[in-house]
Structure formats: C-alpha cells, structure tokens
Design goal:
The protein is an alpha/beta fold. It is built from 11 helices and 13 strands. The strands form 4 sheets. The protein has a 6-stranded mixed β-sheet, covered by helices on one side. A 3-stranded antiparallel β-sheet has the order 10-7-11. It has a two-stranded antiparallel sheet with strand order 1-2. Strand 1 and strand 2 form a beta hairpin. The longest helix has 15 residues. The chain is elongated and about 95 Å long.
Length: 284
C-alpha cells in the first residue's frame, strides 16, 4: 500500500524543480546534496513517476514533474502559511481594568492605540471590584488616585472633571444607580445632594446616560464621557467635589516587559490627548 508523500518532500521537490538543481536548495534549506538526491529518488519511487531528467545541466522537470508542481501549489502554499504562523509568537494578552466610562472611551479609541499586528492583545476586565495588580489579577489599571503601594508604578494622565447633563436645560429630576448596585462617586453625590429628586434608577452607568437621552432626568457624567452622547447638553457648572486625578497603574517590575511597556505607552497616548478628551483637564 502506497503512502502519500510528506509535505516536506513535496516542498523540497518544488524547490528543486524551480531551482533546476540540488545545490541552491541545499544552501537554502540546510540539507546536503546527497540527502536531497536520495529524497528525490525516494519520492519518484513512492509515486511511481519520473519527476526529473538528470544531466550535466542539472535537474529538469519531466511532464509528470511539471504536472505535480502545478497540482501541489495550493497545498504547499497552505503548508508555508501554517509554518509561518507557528514561527510567529502569539501576541501576549494584556489585561486592562478601568471604570465604565474610561472603558467605553478606550473601546471607542481602540484603532488609535492598538492594531492586530501588535505584539500584545488587549483584554478588558470588569472593574466594579478592584482587581489586584500585585497578584496579577490584571496587568494595567486605570485608577482615580495615585497608587500608594511600593510595588505599583503609576503615571498621571489627567484630571477628570464632572458636570450634570440632560436632554435640555429644562429637564428636572435625576437618574441614579439603584440601591444595591456598585456605587460610583458620581451616583453617591447625586444621592447626597439630590436624593429626593431622583426620578429613575438603573443598575449601570451606561443605562443612566441612555435614560438621560430620553429626557428621564439629569445625569452626572465625566465630561469626556458626555462626548459619547451628542444629544446631551451640559446643564450645570463643573462639580468640583467629584474632580479627580486619573492614573495609569501597573506592577513596578512587570512594566519593563516589552508587551506591557508597549501597551502602557499606547494607552498613555490616548489618555493624555486633549483633542480626543475635550472634557479632560491636563495635569499640571
């Protein structure tokens, strides 16, 4: 019973046929000329065909040889593609945790800071609970305060400001996170300052903004996040009590790893760009 030729033998056959001899293929693939000669004769014996005319001018393909070269072109191309994929290291996953609005902003700006051919791949994680960077629960955190732990490194990216937004200035009442949901500083401020005026509640910050777009009430948003909702207008001065610094945080030692370094630099570029984040107050 005959066995199908190996892809490796078919590739060597194609190279010999295209080069018209053994020596160039020997140099290219690091296989000795005697070994190549032996493998080509073994391939002919396996197929039962004469593939080459051997002579002083080298190796010339026979009609059978040319037919085989044409028939195996697609197979050889696929084998080359698979070999290239195996040779290229897989992108390193970089886990990024951030608040709801910063995550939404990064999603909108993804093409500006990451491309498929990059050596790292972003993985966005739920940030309702603070993930432990020290224990590698996340690789990068975007936080609202400077890291205090000595094993964390931080870069200040901006000072974030807040205001009230609504469909129109005449809208009364407020939308806020429902009790029992993970509280945010902005929702806590609404409850403390306007608790009796809350008209509608929801379980996520994004839902609050969507409700405000219908005229259900006023919503407190970071000014950069309000850019995602063009129908909303700012209906209050900035709320100084909610303004805070934004920090890009990573493990002190891990930040020197090339994939993580690339991710940090790329994220910093979009987090500090005042043209992209018009509601952002640049750090002093």
């Amino acid at each position: 019973m005959k066995h199908a030729p190996s892809l490796d033998d078919l590739e060597l056959f194609a190279l010999v046929g295209q080069a018209g001899g053994l020596a160039p293929v020997s140099r290219q693939r690091g296989v000795s000329v005697p070994t190549l000669s032996r493998r080509m004769r073994a391939l002919e014996g396996q197929l039962g065909w004469q593939l080459f005319e051997r002579g002083p001018q080298g190796y010339r393909l026979t009609a059978r040889g040319r037919a085989l070269l044409d028939e195996t072109e697609g197979l050889r191309a696929e084998a080359w593609r698979v070999r290239q994929l195996a040779a290229e290291p897989a992108p390193v996953e970089v886990r990024i945790t951030a608040g709801s609005w910063t995550s939404a902003y990064l999603a909108a700006q993804l093409p500006r800071f990451w491309q498929v051919q990059a050596g790292w791949r972003p993985s966005f994680l739920e940030a309702s609970a603070r993930l432990d960077i020290a224990r590698r629960g996340a690789d990068i955190g975007i936080r609202n305060q400077r890291p205090q732990q000595s094993w964390l490194a931080g870069r200040r990216t901006a000072r974030i400001s807040y205001a009230e937004y609504a469909l129109r200035d005449s809208v009364q009442g407020y939308v806020a996170l429902r009790e029992g949901a993970v509280e945010t500083p902005s929702s806590a401020w609404v409850r403390a300052q306007h608790g009796e005026d809350i008209t509608v509640t929801a379980s996520t910050p994004r839902m609050l903004a969507d409700l405000a777009c219908t005229g259900a009430g006023r919503v407190v948003l970071p000014r950069f996040a309000a850019l995602l909702f063009p129908v909303l207008q700012q209906v209050s001065p900035e709320i100084g009590a909610l303004a805070h610094e934004e920090w890009l945080v990573s493990h002190h030692e891990a930040r020197h790893d090339p994939p993580l370094r690339a991710a940090l630099d790329s994220l910093a570029a979009v987090l500090t760009d005042p043209d992209l984040r018009r509601g952002l107050v640049a750090p002093d």
